[in-house]
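Friendly challenge for the regulars: who can give me the structure tokens for this chain first? No prize, just bragging rights.
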Amino acid sequence: MSVSLTLVVTAAVLVGTGVYLMLERSLTRVLVGLVLLSNGVNVAFLIASGRAGEAPLVVDGRDPADMADPLPQALVLTAIVITLGTTAFLLAMAHRSWQLNGNDDVQDDIEDATIRRLALADDVSEGYEIEGHGDDDADAADHPEEDRG
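First reply, four minutes later:
Bragging rights claimed.
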């Protein structure tokens, strides 16, 4: 089986560019990255399907080895439909974000920002206890709900 180097490079560039754009904060760039990634994967499916052949129809006297494999074609059609639905959803999210905020950037989550700020300010969290370096009275004062009878 001979594979076209041009198709392999095209698929690699589309997938690489798509992944790079999907890592951006702008939903518009994520949308373009999703479309590029999907097209790159579709081209990779077609590359993996092998050489082109005759239509896969059952006719007496035809050699099945000369027929094209219909499975990659079905996978590509399914991927196109899934990409269309995902693109519509992401486009609606970007439009709504633009209406509410005036931009389509993904905002930081409040809880994530709080955890990041606390992690940068504190080397050791308050819940971390070093074993063997504390007296029992201090541990009992820290955890009054435990019965240390």
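The radius of gyration is 28 Å. Residues 94 and 104 are 5 Å apart (CA to CA). Your move, everyone else.
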